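Morning run. Coffee first, then this:
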Amino acid sequence: MEIIADQVSCAHGATVADLSPEELFYLQSRGFTKEAARAILIKATVFEFSSRLPCEKVKARISRKIDQLVPKMKERTEFEYSSL
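And here it is:
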């Protein structure tokens, strides 16, 4: 069998999705700002991926990078509870 490079085509794909509106709503209903909710969900997604990596140095590097890229969470000082 002979494969000629001109006869081969390759493609790369990626799947991209926005954050779940339901998850954002849930966190916001618990008192987080929209920015904080987005940061939490992004960091959780990256952590889920990086926690499976075997190299601790790579995990630490990814963690530092995501901390640089994701805005810092703004704390909310006032909380309102309609019922407890």
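The helical segments are 21-29, 34-50, 56-69. Good start to the day.
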